[in-house]
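pinned: reference chain
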Amino acid sequence: MNHSAVIAANRPSSEDIDAGQAIYDLASRLYPICRSITGEGVRRTLAILGEHLPLEQRDVASGTPVFDWTVPKEWVIRSATIKDMAGRTVLDFADHTLHVLNYSRPFSGTVSREDLLAHIHTLPDQPDLIPYRTSYYAENWGFCMPHRRLAELTEAQYRIEIDSELKDGTLTYGEYLHRGETEREFLFSAHICHPSLANDNCSGLALLAFLAAGLATRKTRYSYRFLFAPGTIGALTWLAHNEDRVDLIDHGLIVSCVGDGGGPTYKRSRRGDAFIDRAMAHVVSRHGGTVLDFSPYGYDERQYCSPGFNLPVGLFQRSAFGTFPEYHTSADNLDFIRPEHLASSRRMVTDLIDIVEEDWTPLNLHPKGEPQLGRRGLYAALGGDTSTGASAMAMLWVLNLADGDNSLLSMADRSGLPFEELAQTAQLLKAHGLLAYSGR
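pinned: its structure tokens
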């Protein structure tokens, strides 16, 4: 796509600007909450999302087997501090949710400086940032802090208090189904397990909640399922409890890291040539983005695309995970995401839904030569002389490729024209008796 077309595709409308601010405001409410793969933080987050759409909360008991995994004990975190022997606080979980090792077991006692350092995680190459670290499936205790602050730890001993608990409880996730004309489904999924990380993934949660709310008033062909679940174990749990329904999923998209200014980036499904892969490639290319091949490393697409399911599920991001310096650090804050980037991400996902809903395969009813368009008033109907170039090309492409084998998305890929322009043109040609549904 040429540079001017990319600029046009990225130019926000007033609706986009308002939507971007609303998504940002929702992400801002989610940001302070300490989330993990289980626990009250997930439930608080679902309650806020539930203000925007009718979410159904699912609770699965600790110890429940899900394929080769087991739902873990629920994590409760109340407080965590490092204090010197004079009682002065050196580090406090209350100041930032990343300060405690996520899923840290409880600990109370006095330790030597050397023992404490063995339980502190830092980023020497980013000395002013707090890293995000977890210990979900191996019991441990620990803290995370800026590397530069290690210089403050000069005393021989420190008092450690981590008021946490690992108890029999539940893994919680939320889902909402927008019912369409058919039972065939489009699955949207976002991980809900990360604490105060704005891009990864408050941005994805907020975007999908806003998108789902907007679909409520739209009549759709497909049913749209929105899943907000903890990473890996949440997706596995959902799959284990819905194994009899996954064959209904025709398209799927993981949404994360959609609030920064990079990309956009799309990672193909394991199939590589699924409709979602072709549709997202079209959308992302119009925004000057990048399409990556599938790999089994990443987010929950690797669960949905595992060989036992092989679902057509791709991953949509702006900057790809792990490629930006703010990734999994305290720099992934509310200053890192912007309303305009959230607006652009929302526009791209909305364009994707339009393609899914509006793609069809037309058949030219006058295939011998070009039908005379002028006497049917079609040039004028598409805007007259001011838009003759693009409109005429859209009509010519649609009529030429409408042999019953090419869908509108295929035409868009071959012609380089926007899908929405070809879709509008095809409906106009159909209304004038030049096209019909091919039946495919």
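why pinned: Residues 113 and 387 are 73 Å apart (CA to CA). Residues 3-71+170-357 form a domain with the Aminopeptidase fold (CATH 3.40.630.10).
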